[in-house]
Amino acid sequence: MNFWDYLGTRHQQLLTDAFQHASAVFQCMVVATVIGVVIGVFTYRSEWAGSLATTTTSTILTIPSLAMIGLLIPIVGLGVAPTVIALTLYGLLPIVRNSIVGLRGVDPSLVDAAKGIGMSRTARLFRVELPLAWPPILTGIRVSTQMLMGIAAIAAYASGPGLGNEIFRGIGSLGSKNALNQVLAGTLGIVVLALLFDAAYVLIGRLTIPRGIRA
Amino acid sequence: MSETATSGTSGTSATAAPAGGAGSATATGATIELEDLTKRYPGSPNPAVDDVNMEIKAGELVIFVGPSGCGKSTTLKMINRLIEPTSGRIRIGGEDVTDMDPVKLRRKVGYAIQSSGLFPHMTVAQNIALVPKLVGWSKSRIKDRVEEMLDLVGLDPGEFRGRYPRQLSGGQQQRVGVARALAADPPVLLMDEPFGAVDPITRDHLQDELIRLQHELHKTIVFVTHDFDEAIKLGDRIAVLRERSHIAQFDTPEAILTNPADDFVSGFVGAGAALKRLNLTRVRDVEVRDYPTVTVDDPLQDIFNKLRHGHTNEILLLDKRHRPYKWLRRGDLMRARGSLARAGTLVHDTVTRDATLRDALEAVLTDNAGRVAVTGRRGAYEGVVDMETLMNSVHELLEADRLDALEHQHDLEEQRAEQTHRAQEGADATGEERA
Ligand SMILES: Nc1ncnc2c1ncn2[C@@H]1O[C@H](COP(=O)(O)OP(=O)(O)OP(=O)(O)O)[C@@H](O)[C@H]1O
Ligand SMILES: [Mg+2]
Q1: Taking a C-beta distance cutoff of 8 angstroms, is the pair B41, B48 a contact?
Q2: Who's near B336: CB < 8 A, 6+ residues apart?
Q3: Are A68 and A35 in contact (CB under 8 A)?
Q4: I need a surface site. Which of B25, B143, B150, B358 has the fewest CB within 10 A?
Q5: Among A117, A120, A132, whose Cβ lies nearest the Cβ of B130?
Q6: CB B106 to CB A113 under 8 A?
Q7: Mapping DSSP to helix (H, G, I), strand (E, B) and coil, where does residue B235 land?
């Protein structure tokens, strides 16, 4: 059976897997974005808190994903839980780092002006600092998403959802006639999803970055 | 001085008035008192601002001028508590604001800075609307206010409302910055080198604009600069500051120019005090001469007659809207065979009654016949100023200044004599304790 026939017969399963893959990544990204930006907001003002946040999140990233999931299984069990936790943790670094860099990069004279015209600290954060830091934060989110697309495949190891299942089935039955097709379908599916997400981010950028600061 | 100025600008204020007619009575200035104000930055042995005492009257435009690092900005930012004073009190309009909620305080104190400080992600209208929104004005009132403020700073609302700051020139950004600072109608306006980053010509325009604005609004303005010429041009009073914000002299520009308190101040005044004095007097304060004029609509024969029988050998030709157009000499028309289009020399430069004598002198010096036409509303002809008028005025001014200075010195000496007298008496009474 060639690859196209394989896709033809298995498209139902593949679509389900792809949908679950995308859905897992998307939900973890939402959580990671919220947590990452909050960490950024609380740490960017202080030199050491900022470095602590960046160092911690980058240390998490150095843990091999398979090991991370392996370590999580005894604690939270199999299935969705270890997947979500691992993905969220991995997704943090680029967002935390870009939030801190973005918030610190806001022109101090603008912050001075915002204070000077009587904006409260909250108003300053939501009306001035975060909007101005948004382009780098969005870049961080984009990088995170790309990364999570690949890492999510490993989730199948913990019986998680997604296209990883396809790949693992293929690897598990290497030598059988569909093995290569399975690995190929899973991998290409992930690549296509990543491209679709990226396109979505371009659109989100267009819609959410104010015209005055768009590059 | 400000009285004559106000009546003189009635023309300009009338053009900006329609927006002001929206029924919003504008708040005029409030007094500012600084009492023993001191700022010590952590980690530096000397205070950046050391025990400053100053009283600024309501509606006054006061300039802080002094060398870089002398503490001008620090002093200014303590007034709206962007920098918290280490000790001392600040009173605005008699109310002690030293312990007030700083956010509330700042909404009553306009603030404009060098880089304009406009938020690049907001449109011009959104930037101006910020403070009114913060203090809870209604949508429609804010909308009207934005238009009014844009009108006030000389920008067409239709054209500029929706623009982003990066789509404006530096001078326009600065105008919007001032509009934003004034939007919620604060009685006090703080400006930290607001025109420091624009080219000299634009700066000149912005300064003129600020003078006009202040004639309309009568805010209390504290303005920081290190350009002494700017200080002279704008200030009702100038505080010359030396290191740690010590006040070297706090007086009117005239007094500082003619009677600097010490070497530090003279050093700051720099050379050419007489020339700088010209910046302090405006064309409206000197004699503007009538000049024989004709308009392009007059019959040629009348123009000929005027040229032939007038007491000058030159007349000024005005265009249809009475704006100076050409200088016509005897014979010019003859040479051009009766064609007004070809006869005479075009008027290159005119000055308004608001122009400084320095501007007028500049125009007169560059004119080959040594005179310049003075124009009023919409550039219409009002008279002519020439070298002779200027020379006479300058001599009178300097003479008057000298007399003032003498009187001032006399007063000071009397005061000093009285003080030493009293000190001596005191010393006699209380023995060494006083010494
Ligand atoms: N945040 C700060 N921490 C420590 N020292 C400061 C701080 N800000 C200003 N200073 C010091 O206080 C002094 C006064 O500074 P300030 O900014 O008020 O000067 P300035 O008169 O406005 O100068 P310029 O004309 O250059 O703007 C300077 O010696 C400066 O180094
Ligand atoms: Mg300064």
Answers
A1: yes
A2: B342, B343, B344
A3: no
A4: B25
A5: A117
A6: no
A7: coil
Please state at what angle helix B139-152 crosses helix B10-20, rounded to 10 degrees: 160
ipTM above 0.85, yes or no: no
CB A43 within 8 A of CB A105: no
Count the neighbouring beta carbons within 10 Å of the beta carbon of residue A62. Answer: 7
Q: How far is CA B181 from CA A33, B177, B305, in A?
A: 35, 6, 57
- The alpha-carbon gap from B122 to the nearest alpha carbon of chain A, in Å, equals 7
What is this structure's pTM?
A: 0.73
Rounded CA-CA distance B165/B173 in Å is 6
List, for residues B162-214, the tens digit of each pLDDT value: 999 999 988 899 889 989 998 888 999 999 998 887 888 888 888 888 888 88
What's the CA-to-centroid distance between B75 and ligand 1, angstroms?
Answer: 10
Cα–Cα distance, A146 to B40 (Å, whole number) = 50
The one-character DSSP state at B53 is E
Rounded distance, CA A93 to CA A148, Å? 11
Local structure of B259: helix, strand or coil: coil
Terminal-residue alpha carbon distance, chain A: 49
Cα end-to-end span (Å), chain B: 44
Does the C-beta of B81 come closer than 6 Å to ligand 1? no
CA nearest B280: which of B53, B47, B5? Answer: B5
Q: Above 80 in pLDDT, residue B429?
A: no
Question: Cα(B78)–Cα(A116) distance, rounded to whole angstroms?
Answer: 11
Taking residue B303's Cβ as centre, other Cβ atoms within 10 Å add up to 20
Residues B41-64: tens digit of each pLDDT: 998 888 999 999 999 999 999 999
Residue B264 CB contacts under 8 Å (≥ 6 apart), including other chains: B240, B242, B248
For helices A3-43 and A130-154, the axis angle rounded to 10 degrees is 140
List Cα–Cα distances, A84 to A26, A87, A143, A145, A159, in angstroms.
10, 5, 18, 13, 12
- A115 contacts A181 by C-beta, under 8 angstroms: no
| CB distance B119 to ligand 1 below 6 Å | no
How do beta strands B324-329 and B314-318 pair?
Answer: antiparallel
Residue B249, token pair as written in the block: 């002299």
DSSP-assigned letters across all residues of A63-127: S-HHHHHHHHHHHH-SSHHHHHHHHHHHHHHHHHHHHHHHHHTS-HHHHHHHHHTT--HHHIIII
What is the per-residue pLDDT across B80-111, written as a single tens digit (0 to 9) for each? 999 999 999 999 988 899 989 999 899 889 99
Q: Specify the ligand 1 atom closest to the Cα of B77.
A: 18
Single-letter code of the amino acid located at B212:
R
CA–CA dist A166, B372 (Å, integer): 89
Cβ B72 under 6 angstroms from ligand 1: yes
